[in-house]
Specification:
- This protein is an alpha+beta fold and about 180 residues long.
- The chain has 2 domains: about 80 residues, Outer Surface Protein A, domain 3 (Alpha-Beta Complex); about 80 residues, Outer Surface Protein A, domain 3 (Alpha-Beta Complex), CATH 3.90.930.12.
- It contains 3 helices and 13 strands; from the N terminus they run H-E-E-E-E-E-E-H-E-E-E-E-E-E-H-E.
- The strands form 4 sheets. The protein has a 4-stranded antiparallel sheet, covered by helices on one side.
- A hairpin with a 6-residue loop joins strand 9 and strand 10.
- The longest helix has 22 residues.
Length: about 180
């Protein structure tokens, strides 16, 4: 039995769970998310104890593979609509900056033109300073994907460390070419 799949999911009082047909719908203060449940996986919700359980119908390989995955996806949905997810990015370099303008993120990051990225539905962006970007939302996958797309425009380079990185990311630095003098005597 899957160690992850066996764990029950506690649902807070601020979150409403609805099981309908082959899917689950979770609604909370930060939004509403839904997920289709594949064949062979059963999700049970006990309203009195406010606990979700994910079970598999058999021990075939496909059902075992989906058991832990579906439990993790449902737990992420419940946490997301209740507390939300956040990724923080930092821009490192002189003259690089970012700001939110309406529904777009505008970045000056060393190109001859500003890079403009539309903000996806369900996400919110903050720029507390010109070199910080905070991506927030209820959907863990959407938050991580958009943060990765922002980072991929100018990933940190290993020699000077310039670029866009996650706040907790450690960039391994390489030594540059060492100048050895004394060529002509």
């Amino acid at each position: 039995m899957s160690r992850i799949g066996r764990q029950p999911i506690a649902v807070s009082t601020k979150v409403d769970v609805k099981l309908d047909g082959g899917g689950i719908r979770v609604k909370g203060p930060l939004g509403e998310l839904s997920q289709q449940i594949p064949d062979g996986i059963d999700v049970n919700y006990d309203e009195s104890t406010r606990v979700l359980d994910v079970k598999r119908q058999s021990d075939i390989k496909k059902h075992r593979a989906l058991h832990g995955l579906m439990r993790a996806l449902v737990a992420n949905m419940v946490h997301g609509v209740d507390q939300g997810y956040e990724k923080k990015l930092k821009i490192i370099a002189v003259g690089y900056s970012a700001k939110v303008q309406g529904k777009d993120l505008t970045m000056q990051i060393g190109f001859c033109h500003p890079v403009i990225m539309p903000i996806p539905e369900g996400l919110s962006l903050e720029t507390p300073s010109a070199t910080e970007i905070n991506v927030k939302g209820a959907d863990k996958q959407a938050v991580g994907q958009f943060a990765a797309e922002i980072r991929s425009i100018r990933p940190p380079e290993p020699y000077n460390g310039k670029g866009i990185r996650y706040v907790d990311e450690n960039v391994r630095r390489k030594a540059g070419k060492a100048f050895v003098g004394g060529g002509d005597k």
